[in-house]
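Narrative progress, year one. The postdoctoral researcher (J.K.) led the effort to move from monomer predictions toward full complexes, under supervision of the PI. The following entry was the first complex the group processed end to end, covering 1158 residues in total.
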Amino acid sequence: MSDSIDLIVKLIPLFPLMAVIVNGLFGHRYSHDLAHRFAWGSVLMSFLCVLAVFTETLRTGAAREVVAYKWIFGGDLTINLAYLIDPLTCIMLLVITGVGFLIHVYSVGYMHGESGFTRFFVYMNLFMVSMLLLVMGNNYVVLFIGWEGVGLCSYLLIGYYYDKVSAAKAATKAFVVNRIGDAGFLLAIFLVFVNFRTLDYTQVMQNAAQLSPEMATAIALCLLIGAVGKSAQLPLYTWLPDAMEGPTPVSALIHAATMVTAGVYMIVRNHAIFDLSPTAMTTVAWIGGLTALFAATIGLVQTDIKRVLAYSTVSQLGYMFLGCGLGAYTAAVFHLMTHAFFKALLFLSAGSVIHALSGEQDIRKMGALKSKIPWTHTLFLIGTIAIAGIPPLAGFWSKDEIMGHAFVHHHYVLYGMAAVGAFLTSFYMFRLTYLTFYGTSRLDHHTAEHVHESPMVMIGPLVVLASLSVIGGFPGVPPENGWFHHFLHSVAGVAGEEHATAPALMLGLMGTATVIALLGWGLAHYFYSGPSSAADALAARMPGVYTTLLNKYFVDELYDRLFVEPTKQIGRLCDWFDRTIIDGLVRSIDRGTDASSAAITWTEKHVVYAGLNIIGYANHLLARSWRRLQTGMVHQYAAIIVAGLFILVHLILLIWTGSGSNGYLSR
Amino acid sequence: MTFPLQDLLTILPELIVIGTACLILALDPILEATKKDVLAWLTLGALAMCIGLTSSQMTGRVSAFSGMVVIDAYAAFWKLLLYIVTGLTVLLSLAYLKAERLSIGEYYGFILLALAGMMVMVSGADLLTIYLGTELMSLSLYVMAGLKRTEARSLEASAKYFVLGAFSSGVLLYGISLLFGLAGSTGLSAIAAAITAHGTGDPLLSLALVLLAVGFGFKMAVVPFHMWTPDVYQGAPTSVTAFMAVASKAASFGAFLRVFVEGLGAASADWSVLFTVVCLATLALGNLVAIVQTNIKRMLAYSSIAHAGYALIGVVVAGGHSGEGASTGFASVLLYIAIYSFMTLGAFALVGMLRKEGQESDQIEDYAGLAKREPLAAFFMLVFLVSLAGIPPTAGFIGKFYIFMAAVNGGMTWLAIVAVIFAAISAFYYLRIVMVMYMREAEGSIATHSRLETSPALSLVLACALAGVVLLGLFPNGLWSLASQAAPLLK
């Protein structure tokens, strides 16, 4: 039994990998129908395997390690391609393969007729492989492979519509910003290795307590840099809204449900290290809280349906980080799961709207779509209610638990930020719903003629996701004591969570959360349900605030000025320096040399001048036959070599000065 | 003067290579222009024999010619690597020379002569032997760089390389003469003994150290002795560029490590500081300047400079340590250069064969829409670039992983941090090519005329390079254990 489960575990990432190879190599030889069947079929197979593994884990309740093969070894370093299956991995696997499967099916309808149909599914399956490795690995290196792999696939998929310049730019931006995070992550891996002499989670977590507080903080902060990049938190969040240039199923799968939650997974996986460092925990909590609020304010005024959802994703990820920072790891994973359901639902419904409107994404050009695409309307509304946090839908339970945790543990400022964020979330999501589906139609004539409901292959997955958004919160009921909490207790349970909350306080917090959500709805209803111009009037009254929000606080421009342009400038400067060297440099080095020791002057006389003479003579010979040769350059290049030589000589003298001279000269 | 037969047997691979080179130079005038391919196959045959011979020299340490030459696992490691990259270069040249309509038989002779020089470099145990090898290699490369006799850029590359190369050889020779003055011998072991006896606090020794560093730094193309690299790499025929970027760099690292470890190991405290500075400058300049390049050969030139910087990290770390730590540091350098060879060779092979109306299409703009025109070639390029950027699970990641691990293990975490940041920056310029290939439409003449000139030989080169990049990424242990055995121990 145990062996067969081990085999099933190994098969989970292999199915999509096989689909990648088959579709990638032979995809152009057969029809699109066969290609997409391989693609979603492989994910379905993985999902079935995950179900088997999940059942087994439920039965035994024990973690399981499966070694696929020995990868790197030598000296005291051994890294296996090995998997760790514990409750946390099981939840992640269920979300990734389950939601992933639904999105694959939806894509068959959504991507129908696109050029590069097969290529799209190859990238999607490659993404699945990487994401599965990311959550299944039993050590940091496998996690890192998955981590880079999902980044690469995200890059390729954002740039899928490569005829759009903006898409290509967004792809590069996503990749480079992520690489900044990855650099932090890689450093964390090195620090872990130096301290533990191993990279396996199990051993690291067992011995985590031996870390000094400073080292724990250093490792945790490096990990946090990685998590912040991948999960689009302040200050590295700018790539995610731009990533919306990719096809909508990609936004749903990668930029909402799975990849962006990798940072949360990573923090929860390493919570033993984070727990040792109050500094790191506070940083995580504040980054989460600030991001939750900050992104929500930007979401208020955006006019692109997908960008609103993107900022909402950034904001919701902020809640998950807040949960992690407060030590409420189970609540964070719980919110990760429910968010995957309702955000995938929202993105895919938005995709259905875009599909119906022949590619229109601007909500100012929508309106009154309720009767035209009733299915999509109902499904989008369910998603909105779920994310707004209105009970008993999924979003309420998980968000309320994180906020409740903040309140109960006396983090009132963070609670306040989360509460304001929740109010704004409810407001902008209902604003989006009203502007899209209600009010008066602002469609242009041509688009209006072609509005149509999406085919069953798209609506079907949406219905499943909508059901999950409705019931997905119940495994976590009652709060802090549901099935979900017991299941995850062995991996994510910490002392802080066993804190029993008085029932009255709990109900009070729940009531407050509900009221906040309803208030947001009410305000959105007041502004946007009818043909009222109240919203425009408000924007006109506060032009400064409105412009700042519309331009996303000008952060992109700021980063461009601060980092991107200077880097390019330095590159250009060095390039210029490489091509045309200032004589002054050489001269100043000459001057410096005069003042230095006899040995150097002697060298200058014998080596440099001799060298330059040789060059001069050689040039003279060459110039006769090749007049076009840029002789001046060669002089300068040689001069730079000499300059480098002198710098090194000075350097070595610097080291040497002070150590007693007992060498050959004094003999 | 007579040599014992045993000594001649020891350098049998070198003799075979030189003999074949002479044979090729003799056969070349006799052969018809259409049958010059025979010479390439002759070259490959000689390489195959050498691989067999050198594989049997992997264990033990044999000295020959009164200690001028030494054959050990270290030399064997580099030689095997050199055979492989030379073989791939020969295959690439078969395709490239045809595309360029160059019918030059002596080309293969020069490749073999350069290889002979490199082999002498890595197995020289005496500064003069190593100098001899360096000169043999360089002289052959000067000629090869100017092979496109009708093209000004190629001639300019050759002339620049020659003038600056001669200059750096002068510096190297000067360092050697100073060491000879100090130790009374040019043998590495004698120099090591003299330094141990007298200590390291001597300005002349330091000067000699710097001069040698400059000489080798030029050959390895590290900052600030890298100036020639972009011009020469861009101007030289691409098959020669590939050979210079890979084989010449590998051999220079091989000789450099041997000299600084076996000869100047006692002064490692001094030179590791020196190379820290050089390493930082190399990483910074290589990576930053690569960002703004518009010509792919220039971009790859700066990329190769940057990669020398990563390899130097291993040297710096090893220099600061003794025993186990040093060995790991050096082994990671060997591993890094070997991995670097495969990905760089693969990238240059593609660059050389992407052509527009018979000309090399080497502007980055020319790669627009390549994924549509040549999906397979674009995919190969993608893998090579991803590997150069150090993204797992390719071999490039393994190389960086061992280097950074060595740095962290050796207590130089700050250096690892700097290198990791530059590796992050490097993604920008590698991925830019990917972006151009996959996400931009070709315009105008590029769409209609720029295409890959395929041939069985090129396919074989690309397949080997790809296999190297992928397999070494998935199964690095074989190479790592080879590198660990070969890594010299600081005495």
